[in-house]
């Protein structure tokens, strides 16, 4: 595949750079089909190291290629951040079981992720949007380190108009931030969502995933309905 678009997602003043990378087929055809939550292995050339990245775009957007969020740390990610539009990227996949979201119709859906872990969650919410009425309550809990680390601010803000609730929690707030401070599990504990007819999808650091899993079980979520995109 080739690079169609590349843009910085974190604030230019942020020490941690996250790039949005859109890849397309060189002949203009559609890339292989996938499910929300699946991932691929990317390398910036045949002789470059590779790493796994979740697909951040929706299956219904496949005609435009795949979108990824790349944190520019480590050999493979740094090489991907350095490539330019039109250059080739080696892609293996899609891989992983993904999520069959049609099976979730009629249920409440909670999407919980931190940092670039929101990538597979974005694939879910963008796939759901045209059929929003088929689902119950949909809430996104996103966590970032500081205001400069926030991703997709405008897109997340716009989801309120689509009937999707969004809660953003920052680990470190600052004078410009008047929202929740701490970790996403703290905000979930305050909101106490019902797990009676719900699906929860967790994506991010292992410590966050395990803390949220334990909390959701306490709130009555069925263990088999607490999902991750890697297990």
How would you sum up this structure in a few lines?
By secondary structure, the protein is of the alpha/beta class.
**Number of helical runs?**
5
CATH topology of the largest domain: Rossmann fold
What helical percentage do the residues reach? 10-25%
Termini separation: 27 Å
Beta-strand percentage? 25-35%
Mean pLDDT: 96
CATH class of the largest domain: Alpha Beta
- What are the segments in which pLDDT stays under 50 over at least 5 consecutive residues? none
Tally of strands = 11
CATH-derived architecture of the largest domain: 3-Layer(aba) Sandwich
Largest sheet, described in full?
5 strands, parallel
User: Given the helix and strand composition, which structural class is it?
Assistant: alpha/beta
User: How many domain units?
Assistant: 2
What does this structure look like?
With 231 residues, the chain is of the alpha/beta class. It folds into 2 domains: 2-95, Beta Barrel (Elongation Factor Tu (Ef-tu), domain 3), CATH 2.40.30.10; 101-228, Rossmann fold (3-Layer(aba) Sandwich), CATH 3.40.50.80. The chain is 20% helix and 28% strand. The protein has helices at residues 75-82, 118-128, 153-158, 184-191, 206-218; strands spanning 2-8, 18-24, 39-43, 50-54, 66-71, 90-95, 108-114, 138-144, 165-170, 198-203, 226-228. The strands form 3 sheets. A 5-stranded parallel β-sheet has the order 9-8-7-10-11, with helices on both faces. Helix 3 links the parallel strand 8 and strand 9 (165-170). The longest helix has 13 residues, at 206-218.
């Amino acid at each position: 595949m080739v690079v169609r678009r590349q843009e910085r997602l974190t604030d230019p003043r942020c020490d941690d750079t996250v790039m949005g990378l859109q890849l397309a087929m060189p002949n203009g055809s559609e890339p292989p089909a996938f499910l929300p939550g699946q991932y691929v292995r990317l390398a910036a050339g045949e002789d470059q190291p590779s790493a796994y990245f979740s697909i951040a775009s929706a299956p219904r957007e496949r005609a435009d290629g795949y979108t990824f969020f790349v944190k520019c740390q480590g050999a493979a990610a740094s090489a991907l951040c350095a490539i330019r539009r039109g250059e080739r990227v080696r892609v293996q996949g899609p891989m992983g079981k993904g999520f069959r979201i049609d099976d979730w119709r009629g249920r409440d859906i909670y999407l919980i992720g931190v940092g670039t872990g929101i990538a597979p969650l974005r694939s879910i919410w963008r796939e759901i949007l045209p059929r929003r009425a088929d689902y119950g309550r949909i809430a996104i809990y996103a966590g970032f380190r500081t205001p400069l680390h926030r991703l997709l601010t405008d897109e997340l803000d716009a989801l309120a108009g689509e009937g999707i609730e969004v809660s953003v929690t920052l680990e470190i707030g600052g004078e410009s931030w008047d929202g929740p401070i701490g970790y996403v599990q703290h905000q979930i504990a305050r909101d106490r969502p019902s797990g009676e007819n719900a699906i929860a999808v967790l994506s991010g650091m292992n410590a966050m995933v395990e803390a949220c899993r334990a909390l959701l079980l306490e709130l009555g979520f069925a263990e088999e309905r607490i999902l991750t995109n890697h297990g």
